[in-house]
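Section 5.1 Outputs to date
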Amino acid sequence: MGLKFPDARETAQPEAGAEAKVAAKIAGNTAVSAKPAAAQPVATKLTDKQIKEAQAWYAARKDQYTPEVLKQIQQKLGIAATGKADVATVQAIAKWQRENKDWPYKAGDEKFSVDGKASAKLLEKMFPSGLNDWSQMVDFSAKARKAINSWKNLSLDQRKAQVIILINQTLAGIGVPPIKTVILIDGKAENAYGLFLASEWTISIDRDLIENCTKDSDKASRLADTLYHEMRHADQNFALSRLAANQETKYPNPVDTLSSVAKIAAQRPLKTGSIEGIKANRFYQYKYGPESESRLKTRIQFRALENKEKSISGAIKANEENLAELLVKFNKTSGQEKVDIGKAIKSVRSLIESQKKELANVRLELSQLTRKIDQMYDESPLEDDAWRIGGMVGYLYGHP
Protein backbone atom coordinates (compact mmCIF):
# COMPACT_ATOMS: atom_id res chain seq x y z
CA MET A 1 0.00 0.00 0.00
CA GLY A 2 1.07 3.58 -0.47
CA LEU A 3 0.26 7.24 -0.88
CA LYS A 4 -2.46 7.63 -3.49
CA PHE A 5 -2.19 9.96 -6.50
CA PRO A 6 -3.70 12.43 -6.17
CA ASP A 7 -4.40 12.64 -2.44
CA ALA A 8 -8.02 13.63 -1.89
CA ARG A 9 -8.25 13.83 1.89
CA GLU A 10 -9.26 16.94 3.79
CA THR A 11 -6.60 19.10 5.38
CA ALA A 12 -5.91 19.73 9.01
CA GLN A 13 -7.53 22.11 11.42
CA PRO A 14 -5.42 23.99 13.98
CA GLU A 15 -4.25 22.34 17.18
CA ALA A 16 -2.37 23.97 20.03
CA GLY A 17 1.32 23.19 20.61
CA ALA A 18 4.19 22.19 18.35
CA GLU A 19 2.11 19.81 16.29
CA ALA A 20 -0.23 22.65 15.38
CA LYS A 21 2.09 23.49 12.52
CA VAL A 22 0.68 20.60 10.53
CA ALA A 23 -2.69 22.30 10.41
CA ALA A 24 -1.71 24.15 7.24
CA LYS A 25 -2.50 23.06 3.72
CA ILE A 26 -0.76 19.85 2.65
CA ALA A 27 0.71 20.01 -0.84
CA GLY A 28 -1.88 19.03 -3.43
CA ASN A 29 -4.91 19.39 -1.16
CA THR A 30 -7.53 22.11 -0.88
CA ALA A 31 -8.00 23.63 2.53
CA VAL A 32 -11.33 23.07 4.25
CA SER A 33 -12.67 25.91 6.36
CA ALA A 34 -13.99 24.87 9.71
CA LYS A 35 -16.99 26.55 11.31
CA PRO A 36 -16.54 27.45 14.97
CA ALA A 37 -18.00 24.68 17.11
CA ALA A 38 -20.75 25.66 19.51
CA ALA A 39 -19.62 25.67 23.12
CA GLN A 40 -20.46 22.43 24.88
CA PRO A 41 -20.30 21.63 28.58
CA VAL A 42 -17.23 19.48 29.32
CA ALA A 43 -17.89 16.34 31.31
CA THR A 44 -15.41 16.02 34.13
CA LYS A 45 -15.79 12.33 34.98
CA LEU A 46 -17.12 9.14 33.47
CA THR A 47 -20.34 7.73 34.87
CA ASP A 48 -20.43 4.45 36.80
CA LYS A 49 -21.87 2.78 33.70
CA GLN A 50 -19.03 4.09 31.50
CA ILE A 51 -16.44 2.92 34.04
CA LYS A 52 -17.89 -0.59 34.09
CA GLU A 53 -17.94 -0.68 30.27
CA ALA A 54 -14.29 0.37 30.16
CA GLN A 55 -13.29 -2.22 32.78
CA ALA A 56 -15.13 -4.93 30.84
CA TRP A 57 -13.25 -3.79 27.72
CA TYR A 58 -9.90 -4.27 29.48
CA ALA A 59 -10.99 -7.63 30.91
CA ALA A 60 -11.85 -8.86 27.40
CA ARG A 61 -8.31 -7.92 26.30
CA LYS A 62 -6.36 -9.12 29.32
CA ASP A 63 -3.78 -10.86 27.11
CA GLN A 64 -2.86 -7.42 25.74
CA TYR A 65 -3.55 -5.12 28.69
CA THR A 66 -1.39 -6.99 31.15
CA PRO A 67 -0.47 -5.59 34.59
CA GLU A 68 2.86 -4.50 33.09
CA VAL A 69 1.12 -2.55 30.32
CA LEU A 70 -1.36 -0.97 32.72
CA LYS A 71 1.51 0.07 35.00
CA GLN A 72 3.23 1.81 32.09
CA ILE A 73 0.04 3.69 31.29
CA GLN A 74 -0.45 4.60 34.94
CA GLN A 75 3.13 5.86 35.23
CA LYS A 76 2.63 7.98 32.12
CA LEU A 77 -0.51 9.45 33.68
CA GLY A 78 1.22 10.06 37.02
CA ILE A 79 -1.09 7.89 39.11
CA ALA A 80 -0.54 4.89 41.38
CA ALA A 81 0.92 1.98 39.37
CA THR A 82 -1.46 -0.74 40.53
CA GLY A 83 -1.36 -2.74 37.30
CA LYS A 84 -5.16 -2.90 37.37
CA ALA A 85 -7.87 -1.20 35.33
CA ASP A 86 -9.27 0.35 38.49
CA VAL A 87 -11.59 3.34 38.69
CA ALA A 88 -8.72 5.81 39.15
CA THR A 89 -7.00 4.51 36.01
CA VAL A 90 -10.12 4.60 33.84
CA GLN A 91 -10.91 8.14 35.00
CA ALA A 92 -7.32 9.26 34.44
CA ILE A 93 -7.37 7.90 30.88
CA ALA A 94 -10.66 9.70 30.26
CA LYS A 95 -9.09 12.92 31.55
CA TRP A 96 -6.15 12.43 29.16
CA GLN A 97 -8.60 11.86 26.28
CA ARG A 98 -10.35 15.13 27.06
CA GLU A 99 -7.09 17.07 27.22
CA ASN A 100 -5.38 15.62 24.14
CA LYS A 101 -6.29 15.58 20.48
CA ASP A 102 -5.85 12.99 17.84
CA TRP A 103 -3.91 14.13 14.77
CA PRO A 104 -6.40 16.65 13.38
CA TYR A 105 -6.33 15.96 9.66
CA LYS A 106 -10.02 15.41 9.14
CA ALA A 107 -12.97 17.51 10.21
CA GLY A 108 -14.70 15.81 13.14
CA ASP A 109 -11.62 13.70 13.91
CA GLU A 110 -9.85 16.14 16.20
CA LYS A 111 -10.59 14.62 19.58
CA PHE A 112 -10.40 11.20 21.14
CA SER A 113 -13.61 9.59 22.32
CA VAL A 114 -13.77 10.07 26.07
CA ASP A 115 -14.45 6.52 27.25
CA GLY A 116 -11.47 5.58 29.45
CA LYS A 117 -10.27 2.94 26.96
CA ALA A 118 -6.58 3.13 26.05
CA SER A 119 -6.96 1.96 22.45
CA ALA A 120 -4.00 1.14 20.21
CA LYS A 121 -4.54 4.43 18.40
CA LEU A 122 -4.44 6.27 21.72
CA LEU A 123 -1.23 4.46 22.68
CA GLU A 124 0.35 5.64 19.41
CA LYS A 125 -0.16 9.17 20.68
CA MET A 126 0.68 8.52 24.33
CA PHE A 127 3.77 6.39 23.58
CA PRO A 128 5.12 7.58 20.19
CA SER A 129 7.83 5.38 18.70
CA GLY A 130 9.50 4.57 15.41
CA LEU A 131 8.67 7.03 12.66
CA ASN A 132 5.68 8.18 14.68
CA ASP A 133 8.06 10.05 16.99
CA TRP A 134 8.01 13.84 16.60
CA SER A 135 11.82 14.15 16.76
CA GLN A 136 12.12 11.68 13.86
CA MET A 137 9.75 13.78 11.74
CA VAL A 138 11.64 16.99 12.44
CA ASP A 139 15.01 15.33 11.77
CA PHE A 140 13.90 13.72 8.50
CA SER A 141 12.32 16.90 7.11
CA ALA A 142 15.59 18.77 7.75
CA LYS A 143 17.72 16.03 6.14
CA ALA A 144 15.39 15.82 3.14
CA ARG A 145 15.63 19.57 2.67
CA LYS A 146 19.43 19.47 2.83
CA ALA A 147 19.57 16.63 0.29
CA ILE A 148 17.14 18.19 -2.19
CA ASN A 149 18.98 21.50 -1.90
CA SER A 150 22.03 19.78 -3.43
CA TRP A 151 20.17 18.27 -6.41
CA LYS A 152 20.37 21.13 -8.90
CA ASN A 153 23.17 19.64 -11.00
CA LEU A 154 22.56 15.95 -10.22
CA SER A 155 21.18 13.39 -12.68
CA LEU A 156 18.04 11.40 -11.95
CA ASP A 157 20.13 8.35 -11.03
CA GLN A 158 22.25 10.42 -8.64
CA ARG A 159 19.15 11.85 -7.00
CA LYS A 160 17.69 8.37 -6.66
CA ALA A 161 20.91 7.15 -5.02
CA GLN A 162 20.68 9.95 -2.46
CA VAL A 163 17.03 9.08 -1.76
CA ILE A 164 18.00 5.46 -1.05
CA ILE A 165 20.72 6.61 1.36
CA LEU A 166 18.31 9.00 3.10
CA ILE A 167 15.66 6.28 3.47
CA ASN A 168 18.03 3.63 4.79
CA GLN A 169 19.77 5.96 7.23
CA THR A 170 16.36 6.86 8.64
CA LEU A 171 15.21 3.24 8.88
CA ALA A 172 18.49 2.21 10.51
CA GLY A 173 17.91 4.88 13.14
CA ILE A 174 14.71 3.13 14.28
CA GLY A 175 16.01 -0.42 13.90
CA VAL A 176 14.15 -1.31 10.69
CA PRO A 177 16.04 -3.25 7.96
CA PRO A 178 17.09 -1.22 4.90
CA ILE A 179 14.97 -1.32 1.76
CA LYS A 180 16.43 -3.17 -1.22
CA THR A 181 15.98 -0.32 -3.70
CA VAL A 182 13.82 2.56 -4.87
CA ILE A 183 11.81 1.94 -8.03
CA LEU A 184 10.74 4.91 -10.16
CA ILE A 185 7.16 4.74 -11.42
CA ASP A 186 4.78 6.84 -13.50
CA GLY A 187 2.61 8.18 -10.68
CA LYS A 188 -0.34 9.05 -12.90
CA ALA A 189 -0.36 5.62 -14.51
CA GLU A 190 -0.02 3.84 -11.16
CA ASN A 191 -2.43 6.24 -9.43
CA ALA A 192 0.09 6.57 -6.59
CA TYR A 193 2.81 8.94 -5.49
CA GLY A 194 4.53 6.01 -3.84
CA LEU A 195 4.17 2.33 -2.96
CA PHE A 196 5.76 0.00 -0.43
CA LEU A 197 5.97 -3.71 -1.22
CA ALA A 198 6.69 -5.83 1.86
CA SER A 199 7.29 -9.03 -0.11
CA GLU A 200 10.16 -7.35 -2.00
CA TRP A 201 11.03 -4.78 0.70
CA THR A 202 11.15 -2.01 -1.89
CA ILE A 203 9.72 1.49 -2.17
CA SER A 204 8.39 2.91 -5.44
CA ILE A 205 8.27 6.66 -5.96
CA ASP A 206 6.67 8.80 -8.66
CA ARG A 207 9.52 9.65 -11.04
CA ASP A 208 8.27 13.21 -11.49
CA LEU A 209 8.63 13.94 -7.76
CA ILE A 210 12.34 13.17 -7.87
CA GLU A 211 13.15 14.35 -11.39
CA ASN A 212 11.46 17.74 -11.32
CA CYS A 213 11.47 18.92 -7.71
CA THR A 214 13.43 21.90 -6.46
CA LYS A 215 14.15 22.78 -2.84
CA ASP A 216 11.17 25.09 -2.31
CA SER A 217 8.66 23.54 -4.71
CA ASP A 218 5.39 21.82 -3.86
CA LYS A 219 6.91 18.68 -5.40
CA ALA A 220 9.68 18.73 -2.79
CA SER A 221 7.17 18.86 0.08
CA ARG A 222 5.17 16.08 -1.55
CA LEU A 223 8.32 14.01 -2.00
CA ALA A 224 9.26 14.37 1.68
CA ASP A 225 5.68 13.42 2.61
CA THR A 226 5.69 10.41 0.26
CA LEU A 227 9.10 9.09 1.34
CA TYR A 228 8.11 9.24 5.00
CA HIS A 229 4.71 7.69 4.27
CA GLU A 230 6.28 4.70 2.52
CA MET A 231 9.00 4.34 5.17
CA ARG A 232 6.24 4.23 7.77
CA HIS A 233 4.80 1.25 5.93
CA ALA A 234 8.18 -0.47 6.28
CA ASP A 235 8.13 0.46 9.97
CA GLN A 236 4.59 -0.96 10.33
CA ASN A 237 5.34 -4.17 8.46
CA PHE A 238 8.50 -4.85 10.42
CA ALA A 239 6.42 -4.52 13.60
CA LEU A 240 3.88 -6.98 12.13
CA SER A 241 6.67 -9.46 11.44
CA ARG A 242 8.01 -9.04 14.98
CA LEU A 243 4.52 -9.67 16.34
CA ALA A 244 4.09 -12.77 14.17
CA ALA A 245 7.44 -14.05 15.48
CA ASN A 246 6.05 -14.09 19.02
CA GLN A 247 5.65 -17.72 20.10
CA GLU A 248 3.24 -16.92 22.92
CA THR A 249 0.34 -16.42 20.52
CA LYS A 250 -0.03 -18.23 17.21
CA TYR A 251 -1.33 -15.75 14.67
CA PRO A 252 -3.46 -17.55 12.11
CA ASN A 253 -2.21 -15.78 8.99
CA PRO A 254 1.34 -15.52 7.63
CA VAL A 255 2.99 -12.11 7.21
CA ASP A 256 3.98 -11.59 3.57
CA THR A 257 7.31 -9.96 4.34
CA LEU A 258 10.59 -10.62 2.53
CA SER A 259 12.09 -13.72 4.16
CA SER A 260 15.42 -12.08 5.05
CA VAL A 261 13.53 -9.28 6.84
CA ALA A 262 11.30 -11.80 8.63
CA LYS A 263 14.42 -13.55 9.94
CA ILE A 264 15.66 -10.31 11.46
CA ALA A 265 12.22 -9.69 12.95
CA ALA A 266 12.24 -13.18 14.49
CA GLN A 267 15.26 -12.16 16.54
CA ARG A 268 13.26 -9.32 18.09
CA PRO A 269 9.74 -10.72 18.71
CA LEU A 270 7.08 -8.41 20.11
CA LYS A 271 5.03 -9.53 23.07
CA THR A 272 1.28 -9.42 22.61
CA GLY A 273 1.00 -7.92 26.08
CA SER A 274 3.19 -4.87 25.49
CA ILE A 275 2.64 -1.30 24.40
CA GLU A 276 4.39 -1.92 21.07
CA GLY A 277 2.58 -5.25 20.66
CA ILE A 278 -0.81 -3.61 21.11
CA LYS A 279 0.06 -0.94 18.55
CA ALA A 280 1.27 -3.55 16.05
CA ASN A 281 -1.80 -5.71 16.63
CA ARG A 282 -4.03 -2.89 15.42
CA PHE A 283 -2.31 -3.02 12.04
CA TYR A 284 -2.08 -6.83 12.08
CA GLN A 285 -5.80 -7.33 12.61
CA TYR A 286 -6.67 -5.07 9.72
CA LYS A 287 -4.18 -6.66 7.33
CA TYR A 288 -4.63 -10.30 8.35
CA GLY A 289 -7.71 -10.40 10.56
CA PRO A 290 -11.16 -11.90 9.84
CA GLU A 291 -12.18 -9.26 7.28
CA SER A 292 -8.90 -9.28 5.37
CA GLU A 293 -10.00 -12.17 3.12
CA SER A 294 -12.99 -10.15 1.89
CA ARG A 295 -10.77 -7.16 1.09
CA LEU A 296 -8.32 -9.41 -0.74
CA LYS A 297 -11.14 -10.87 -2.86
CA THR A 298 -12.24 -7.36 -3.77
CA ARG A 299 -8.73 -6.49 -4.96
CA ILE A 300 -8.42 -9.76 -6.91
CA GLN A 301 -11.79 -9.08 -8.54
CA PHE A 302 -10.65 -5.57 -9.44
CA ARG A 303 -7.46 -6.85 -11.08
CA ALA A 304 -9.43 -9.48 -13.01
CA LEU A 305 -11.82 -6.81 -14.30
CA GLU A 306 -8.88 -4.59 -15.27
CA ASN A 307 -7.45 -7.45 -17.33
CA LYS A 308 -10.87 -8.12 -18.86
CA GLU A 309 -11.22 -4.45 -19.81
CA LYS A 310 -7.84 -4.55 -21.56
CA SER A 311 -8.75 -7.78 -23.33
CA ILE A 312 -12.10 -6.48 -24.61
CA SER A 313 -10.58 -3.13 -25.63
CA GLY A 314 -7.91 -5.01 -27.58
CA ALA A 315 -10.50 -7.21 -29.26
CA ILE A 316 -12.59 -4.18 -30.25
CA LYS A 317 -9.53 -2.49 -31.75
CA ALA A 318 -8.63 -5.64 -33.72
CA ASN A 319 -12.20 -6.03 -34.99
CA GLU A 320 -12.39 -2.36 -35.99
CA GLU A 321 -9.18 -2.79 -37.99
CA ASN A 322 -10.66 -5.91 -39.58
CA LEU A 323 -13.85 -3.98 -40.37
CA ALA A 324 -11.85 -1.21 -42.06
CA GLU A 325 -10.10 -3.79 -44.26
CA LEU A 326 -13.43 -5.42 -45.16
CA LEU A 327 -14.92 -2.07 -46.14
CA VAL A 328 -11.99 -1.41 -48.48
CA LYS A 329 -12.45 -4.85 -50.07
CA PHE A 330 -16.21 -4.35 -50.28
CA ASN A 331 -15.72 -1.24 -52.39
CA LYS A 332 -13.32 -3.01 -54.73
CA THR A 333 -15.31 -6.17 -55.44
CA SER A 334 -18.56 -7.19 -57.08
CA GLY A 335 -20.85 -10.14 -57.47
CA GLN A 336 -20.99 -12.98 -54.95
CA GLU A 337 -17.73 -11.93 -53.31
CA LYS A 338 -19.23 -8.52 -52.55
CA VAL A 339 -22.29 -10.23 -51.04
CA ASP A 340 -20.09 -12.45 -48.87
CA ILE A 341 -17.98 -9.50 -47.70
CA GLY A 342 -21.16 -7.58 -46.93
CA LYS A 343 -22.31 -10.41 -44.65
CA ALA A 344 -18.90 -10.44 -42.94
CA ILE A 345 -19.11 -6.67 -42.42
CA LYS A 346 -22.53 -7.02 -40.80
CA SER A 347 -21.25 -9.83 -38.56
CA VAL A 348 -18.17 -7.86 -37.46
CA ARG A 349 -20.23 -4.73 -36.78
CA SER A 350 -22.61 -6.78 -34.63
CA LEU A 351 -19.68 -8.29 -32.76
CA ILE A 352 -18.14 -4.85 -32.13
CA GLU A 353 -21.47 -3.51 -30.85
CA SER A 354 -21.78 -6.49 -28.49
CA GLN A 355 -18.21 -6.05 -27.26
CA LYS A 356 -18.75 -2.34 -26.63
CA LYS A 357 -21.78 -3.14 -24.48
CA GLU A 358 -19.74 -5.70 -22.56
CA LEU A 359 -16.95 -3.14 -22.14
CA ALA A 360 -19.40 -0.59 -20.78
CA ASN A 361 -20.63 -3.11 -18.19
CA VAL A 362 -17.07 -3.99 -17.16
CA ARG A 363 -16.20 -0.31 -16.75
CA LEU A 364 -19.30 0.21 -14.62
CA GLU A 365 -18.22 -2.67 -12.37
CA LEU A 366 -14.70 -1.22 -12.21
CA SER A 367 -16.12 2.15 -11.20
CA GLN A 368 -18.14 0.56 -8.41
CA LEU A 369 -15.17 -1.47 -7.17
CA THR A 370 -12.94 1.62 -7.33
CA ARG A 371 -15.29 3.39 -4.90
CA LYS A 372 -15.27 0.33 -2.65
CA ILE A 373 -11.46 0.12 -2.68
CA ASP A 374 -11.19 3.86 -2.00
CA GLN A 375 -13.39 3.33 1.05
CA MET A 376 -11.18 0.42 2.14
CA TYR A 377 -8.16 2.69 1.76
CA ASP A 378 -9.72 5.46 3.82
CA GLU A 379 -10.68 3.00 6.57
CA SER A 380 -7.28 1.32 6.70
CA PRO A 381 -5.42 2.11 9.95
CA LEU A 382 -2.14 1.46 8.14
CA GLU A 383 -2.88 4.09 5.50
CA ASP A 384 -4.46 6.52 7.96
CA ASP A 385 -1.41 6.29 10.21
CA ALA A 386 1.10 6.67 7.36
CA TRP A 387 -0.90 9.47 5.74
CA ARG A 388 -1.02 11.49 8.92
CA ILE A 389 2.66 11.36 9.82
CA GLY A 390 3.75 11.69 6.18
CA GLY A 391 1.59 14.81 5.94
CA MET A 392 3.29 16.21 9.01
CA VAL A 393 6.71 15.74 7.44
CA GLY A 394 5.50 17.35 4.22
CA TYR A 395 4.38 20.37 6.18
CA LEU A 396 7.56 20.54 8.25
CA TYR A 397 9.60 20.41 5.06
CA GLY A 398 7.78 23.42 3.70
CA HIS A 399 8.02 25.32 6.99
CA PRO A 400 11.57 24.84 8.34
